[in-house]
Amino acid sequence: MTLTSSNAAVATVASPVTVQAGASTVTFTVTGVAPGTASISASAGGAATQSSILTVARIALASISLSAPSVVGGGSLTGTAVLTAPAPAGGAAVALSANDPVSVPATVTVPGGASSASFTVTTRLVGGTVNGTVTGTYGGGTASAAVSITKPTVATANFGVTGPTETDTCTMSNGGNTLNCTFNGSTSTAPGNIVGYDWSFRVGAMAPLTQTTTGAILAQPTVRCDWLPPAPLPAGSQQWLPLTVTLKVRDDLGNVSAEAINNDARVFPQGVCGY
After folding, report:
1. What does pLDDT average to in each consecutive run of 10 residues of the chain (275 residues)?
2. What is this structure's pTM?
3. CA 155 to CA 262: how far, in whole Å?
4. Is residue 171 assigned to a domain?
5. Looking at residue 144, what is its pLDDT?
6. Cβ neighbours of 257 (radius 10 Å)
7. What residues does 244 pair with on adjacent strands?
8. Of 131, 150, 169, at which residue does a domain stop?
């Protein structure tokens, strides 16, 4: 069976194709080349037929949207890139850019067969209201979305716990005198300059230890053996103890945040303090 395209500049088709003995149909691939319309004709044994009109659409960026029109500096948003048609096999890498105080990844890939993909938009602290723009480009299409970045009106504590190998995991080190992990409150915000980070950390129902830093990061927090419950770990239990970490921040305008709490962290005794 001979196949032909009415417009090879728009769509092409491999020819000929063979209908196997005993079969009445055969499948074949039509490849889009450029935006436009075409039809595919088939002929065999003196008979011919023509397909309906095939439209080849240009795959380009149609729009960029953001999850909110404004955000407090230091916060983040979700951005979405939408294409005019499903992405080709292998995906479509949409180039992204933004102006300070907004940051975006260099690209976001729309998976093959999908029409959109999301990405994270981050911002930095600002002293007043600043307008930002997120722009995307793909397939000759360009789209933008605007966002307003505002100054914090209240103090807000926010932090993460990271260990040497994974998130929310600490190990006892230095003979039981330190925790081998880092508390990072750099995403906390306040109307003024943050001058104090008040940390508290406890294991289970034991009394907490406290430590105040002027910077956002508390690395290798100081602890002691009597901070842990008496050894050993209960038979058959996991080899770690539950860790609760809290943070409050204070700024130079007298603002104090509510307490942020992480109840998902854990401590591995690592063979110290009698364990």
Report:
1. 92 91 90 88 86 85 97 93 93 97 98 97 92 96 97 94 93 95 94 95 96 97 95 81 97 96 94 90
2. 0.64
3. 18
4. yes
5. 98
6. 23
7. 202
8. 150
- Residue 271's contacts (CB-CB under 8 Å, 6 or more residues apart) are none
Dig out the tokens for 212 from the structure: 């105040």
- Which residue range forms the structural domain that includes residue 192? 160-268
**Residue 248: inside a domain:** yes
Element (H, E) at 248: strand 241-251
* Same domain for 96 and 44: no
Nearest to 108 by CA among 128, 81, 83: 81
Amino acid in the structure at residue 10? V
Tell which residue, 118, 114, 111, 108, has the closest CA to residue 78: 118
Contact indicator for 83, 59 with CB cutoff of 8 Å = yes
> Which letter, b or e, does each residue of 146-185 get, where b requires 16 or more Cβ atoms within 10 Å of its Cβ?
ebebebbeebbbbbebbbeeeebbbbbbeebebbbbbbbb
